[in-house]
Amino acid sequence: MKHIRILRRRILRFTVSAIVICLLLFLLQRLLMPKYSVGTQDGAMIAEYYNDAPKHNLVIIGDSEMYENISPLVLWENYGINCYIRGSAQQLIWQSYYLLEDTLRYETPEAVIINITSMQYGEPQRESYNRMTLEGMRWSTSKVKAIFASMTEEESFWDYVFPLLRYHSRWNDLTEDDFRLMFSEEKVSLNGYMMQVGVKPAENVPEGRPLADYTFSDVSYQYLDKITKLCKEHDVELILMKSPSLYPYWYEEWDAQLKTYAAEHEIRYLNCVNNDEIGLNFQTDTFDGGLHLNVAGAEIYSNFLGRWLQNEIEISDLRDDGELVQAWNSKAADYEEKKSEKYRELSEQ
Amino acid sequence: MQFVSYSFLLFLAVVFIIYYLVPGRFQWMVLLVASYVFYLFSGPKYLIYIMVTTFTTWLAARQIDKLKKQQADYLEENKKTLSREDKKSYKSAIKKKQRFMMLAALLFNLGILAVVKYTNFAISNINAVINLAGGQPIEFVSLILPLGISFYTFRALSYLIDVYRNTISAEKNVFKFALFVSFFPQLIQGPISRYSQLESGLFTSHHLNLKRVSFGLQRILWGYMKKMVIADRIVVGLTTMTADTAAYRGAYVLVEVFFYAIQLYADFSGGLDMAIGAGQIFGVTLPENFERPFFSKSIKEYWNRWHMTMGSWFTDYIFYPISVCKPMLNLSKWSRTHLGPVLGRRLTVYLSSFAVWLATGIWHGASWNFVFWGLSNYVVIMISQELEPLYRRFHQKFNVDGSLLYKVFQIVRTFLLMGFLRIYDCFDGVITTWRMVGSLLTTGNWNILWDGSLMQIGLSMTDYIILAAGILLMFIVSMSQRSGSVREKIHAKPYTVRFVIWTALFLAVLLTGAYGIGYDASNFIYNQF
C-alpha cells in the first residue's frame, strides 16, 4: 500500500514537472520566435493564408514578384476573381511545389499561377529566406519534405521542429512587440499582397551578365514536372508566369526553355517582361527602381492579368457569392485605409 | 558524431532504451554495437584502425596469458623432478616469450599511432634539413587520423602491459575486449581508463536505477554548460586574437593566457563530464580526469589534478619502467659512485621525468610547440623540485604556511605559470610564441584592458556577462565540491528545490549556449588527440 502511494506520488511529480517544463519551453519559444509582422513582414504571409476561407478560384505561388506586383482586390473588383497569393521572399521552385501541395489539401482552385523566376536556382540558397517560407506553413508531410529539400548545409531539421533551438539567443534583442505578439501576429497582407506606395524610377538598369550555362538545373525541372503533374491530377489549370520586372535580368535563353517546356506539356506560359500591352511605366510604377511594382503598378498589372485570365482560361466570376462579396467589402475598406495611411506616411517623410 | 549534436542525444536515447530493455547478459553487446555505430559516424574507413588495435592487443594478451598458464602447468606437473635452476631457466624462457609478445604488439600499435599522427611532422623536419642542404623536399603524405586514436591506443596498451605484468588476467572474449577499447562515451577524448576500472561496470548486468540515471544526465548537462556556455563562447574572442599576431600583441597575450586557460578547461572537462555522465547512465563508472586543477598551489600538484588519467598512464607505463630498467639501475649505481649521492640519486629521476614530459608533449600533438610545451613543464617542475628546500626555509622564516593570502598567491602563481606554458598551443610556431610572450614586456599597451578594445574581438558586453556568470558558477561548484559531491548535496534537498536548480541550469544552457547557426561551435579540443 505504502509502495503504491510512493509510486503514485512519483508519477504525479514527474507529470507535473514535465508539464511545467513543456509549458516553459512553449512560452519561451513563442516569446523568442521573430515577430515577422513588425519586422521583416515578408515572413508573415505564408501563415496568413490559413486564416482566409479556402474558396479561392485562383492561387498564385511565388516570390516577391508575385506578392508585391499583383493586387487581389483589383482582380476581385474588376473580374470577380477570388485570388490568394502564397508568396515568400526568394521562394525556390521546390518550395512553390510544396506550397502547392499544401494548398491542395485545403482547396482546389480553378487555376494556379507559378512564378518561374526561381527556376534559375538549383540548390538551397539562404537560411533566412527558407525560414520566411517554411515557418509559416502548417505541419504536414509537405512541410517536412519542403524543409528537407530547402535546408542549407548549416541547417538542421530539429531547428524547424523546435524553433527555440534556432532563436535561443534572441533574448538579447527582445522588444515590447515580442511580448505583445507572443500568441497572435498582426495581419500584414491583403490576400497575400504586400502593398508598397513609394516611387523610385528605374534608371541605369544593368544588363544581364553572360552566363556560362543557361540551362535550368535538373532539380528545377524535376520540381516543375511535379507541379505540372500535380495540377493535372487535380484538374487545375497551371499557368507559368514571369512577372514584369526589369531586374534581376530575365535571359532570352531562359524564356526559350520555358516556352519549349510549356509547349511540350500543353500548359500556358505568360512572360510579362517588357510586355507593352500591360501599360506599365517604370518611371512611376515601381518603388525600387524596376525590381518590383508599387501599388499603382500592381493595379495596372492586375487589370492586365484579370483580362488575360478571362480571355485565355475563362476564369469564373464569383461576384454572385454573397459570402465572398461580404468578405471582400471588408477587405476593400482595409485596403483603402492602408493605402491612404501609407501615402500619408510617404508624404510625411 | 559530436557530443554536442542532436544526433548524439538521439543516439544516446535510443541506446539507453534498448540497453534497459534487453536481458542483463546482453547489455554489454548493446554497448558494443552502439560503440561501433558511434565510431562509424566518424567514417567507415576509421573502423579498420580500431579493429586492428583491438585484435592485435587482445591476441598478444591472450598469448601472454596462455604462456603464464603453460608455465604454471609445467611447473606443477614437474615440480618433483625440476631443480631450482631448471625452474628458473624455464621461467626465464617463458618471460622472454611473453616480453616478445608484449613488445611486438606494443610496437606495432605505437607504430600505427606514429605513422598516422607523426609522419608529416617528421617529413616537415626532414624537409627543413633538406632545404638547408638545397635538396628537393619530400612531399607530404595524405593520411587519415582516426578519431580518438591516441586515447584508444593508450587504453589498449595499458591492458596489454597489465596482463604482461600479471596485474590482470587476459579477457578471453575478443568482443568484450573490443567494448573496453571502443566504449563510446570515452572513445573520442578519454578518460584513459584501465581494464580493471571498467571490467565490472561494462560486463555485469544493470537494472534501471533512477538516481544513477538522473545523476548521469545531470553530469551531462553540467558538461554541456561548460562546453556550450563558456568554452564555445570564449573561443570566439580567443580565435580573433590568436589569428592576428600582428594586431593582438602585448597585453592581449595576457588576455589570451586567461581566455585559453578557461576555454581549455571548460572544453576538456566539459567533454569529460559528458563522457562520465553518459557512462553513468549505463552503470559504468569512468575514472575522473580533473580535480579542481586551478586550485593547485604548485605545478606538480596541478599535474596531479589535470588530465589525471593521462598523468597516471605516463607514470605507470613510462616513468616507472624507465626508472627501474637495468641500464637505468646501472646508471644510478655509477652516478652515485662518481657524481656523489645527491646528484646520483636524482639523475635517474631527471632522465625518467624527461622521457615522460617528452612523451607527454609529443602525445599532445605533432608539432615542436607541443614538444617545447612538454619540456617547459619538465624544466619548471624540476626547478621547483630543486628549490623545494629553499621554499621550506622561506615558509618557516616568514611563517606563511597555512596563511590564506599565501595560499591565494600560490594558486594565482600556478595558474599564471601554467597559463603561460599552455600558450604554446595557441600560436603557429615556437618562435612566434616566444615573440608574443616577449611582446608583453615591450608593447606596453596595457590600456586595452580597460579602454573598450576587448569589445572589438568578437565578444559583446552580453557575452562577457554570460562568461562571467558561467565562470562564477564553475567556481562556486568547484568550491562546493571540496566538501563532497554537489549532485549528492542537491539530491538531499526537497524536490521543488532540485527541480528549480536543474531546470534553471537546463534553460541557461538552452538560452545562453553558443550553438546553432550564427555560432561557429568548435569541436572538442581533445578530439583529434
The helix/strand order of chain B is: HHHHHHHHHHHHHHHHHHH
Order of helices and strands of chain A: HHEHHEHEHHHHHHEHEHH
Mean pLDDT of chain A: 91
The radius of gyration of chain A is: 23 Å
State the end-to-end CA separation of chain A: 77 Å
Our count of domains of chain A comes out at 1
Low-pLDDT runs of 5+ residues of chain A are: none
- Poorly predicted regions of chain B: none
CATH class of chain A: Alpha Beta
Total count of strands of chain A: 5
Average pLDDT for all residues of chain B: 89
Structural class of chain B: mainly alpha
- Cross-sheet strand order for the largest sheet of chain A: 2-1-3-4-5
Helix content of chain A: 40-55%
So, CATH architecture of chain A? Answer: 3-Layer(aba) Sandwich
Largest interface, counted by CB within 8 Å of the partner chain's CB: A-B, 19 and 15 residues
User: How many β-strand runs of chain B?
Assistant: 0
Q: Write out the CATH superfamily name of chain A.
A: SGNH hydrolase
Can you walk through the features of this model?
The complex is a heterodimer of chains A (349) and B (529). Helices cover 48% and strands 7% of the residues of chain A. In chain A, strand 4, helix 12 (252-265) and strand 5 (268-271) form a beta-alpha-beta unit. The longest helix of chain A has 31 residues, at 2-32. Chain A has a single domain (41-136, 186-348), classed as SGNH hydrolase (Rossmann fold, 3-Layer(aba) Sandwich), CATH 3.40.50.1110. Chain A has helices at 2-32, 45-48, 64-67, 72-79, 93-103, 127-134, 141-150, 157-161, 163-167, 176-180, 218-233, 252-265, 295-313, 322-348, and strands at residues 58-62, 83-87, 111-115, 237-242, 268-271. A 5-stranded parallel beta sheet of chain A has the order 2-1-3-4-5, sandwiched between helices. Helices cover 72% and strands 0% of the residues of chain B. The longest helix of chain B has 50 residues, at 84-133. Chain B contains 19 helices and no strands. Classes of the chains: A alpha/beta (349), B mainly alpha (529). The A-B interface holds A 13, 17, 20-21, 24, 28, 127, 154-156, 158-159, 164-166, 168-169, 171-172 and B 6, 462, 495, 499, 503, 506-507, 510-513, 515-518.
